[in-house]
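Fold this sequence, please.
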Amino acid sequence: MLEPYFNSFNEAGTDEAGRGCLAGPVTAAAVILPEHFKNDILNDSKIVSELKRNQLKPIIEENAMAFGVAHVYPDEIDKINILNASFLAMHKALDLIEKQPDFIIVDGNRFTPYQNIPHACIVKGDGKYLSIAAASILAKTYRDAYMEKIHLEFPMYNWKKNKGYPTKEHREAIREFGLTPYHRKSFRQLPQQLKLDILKS
């Protein structure tokens, strides 16, 4: 069962979704949970089914002391690179939470300090600590909803299913139709980089 990192702190967990995608934003969430919050289903969003993620989203939102979710879009990703965009998304998510945390726990091994608040980086933290797991669920569900929305604009890429990840189907669509404004131009879109047309939205 996942646990808090510190019981005595207003602990904010933060995590991102979509870092390895070819299209769409990188999305981050920050969550402060009540000290005695428990949930047997809550875990790393990558091992929780889509059905359970969607069930957990309102539970987290209703029970959290505070939470924030933020997107950083492809044009910004292309300017500052995906690692910095991930940190920026986490900072933006932290900006949105109404209650300032005393401590921040971050999924992964790197982070840019936020407002002089102490933090800890935890590899695979989304499978160890409740607040990071909650952030991973919110980041994933909000990003998935965004990708399903833009799928309606460019259905040939099937973002409703692949969410912008580099699946064979997604790469074949890029090869056939070119890039959209939602694609990350700084990423290698195809195994053999080709000159690609840019579709207008």
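The first strand starts at residue 11 and ends at 17. The mean pLDDT is 91.
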